[in-house]
Amino acid sequence: MAALAWLAVPLLTGLGASAWAWYVSRPHPADVWTDVRRHDRVRSAFGRIAPGRG
């Protein structure tokens, strides 16, 4: 019975890797305006950290 339990480990690992690969390969819709707002927030935060540079 212990041997069957050890066989379940690679099986579950393979299933998990397959599910992850399927999820990553799917096209995800891009929200351009959210990305632009996030970029502006990061840029302004770096501007506050090092003023006068750039």
Summarize the structure in words.
This protein is an all-alpha fold and 54 residues long. It has two helices and no strands. It has helices at 2-25, 32-49. The longest helix is centred in the first third of the chain and has 24 residues, at 2-25. 0% of the residues are buried. The mean pLDDT is 85.
Write the layout of secondary structure elements.
Blueprint: H1 2-25, H2 32-49
Q: Which characteristics define this entry?
A:
single chain; 54 residues; mainly alpha; 2 helices; elongated
Q: Outline of this structure?
A:
The protein has helices at residues 2-25, 32-49. It is an all-alpha fold and 54 residues long. The mean pLDDT is 85.
Q: Tell me the distance between the termini.
A: 65 Å
Poorly predicted spans: none
Shape assignment: elongated
Total beta strands: 0
**Helix/strand/pairing class, anyone?**
mainly alpha
What value does the average pLDDT take? 85
> Helicity range of the residues?
over 70%
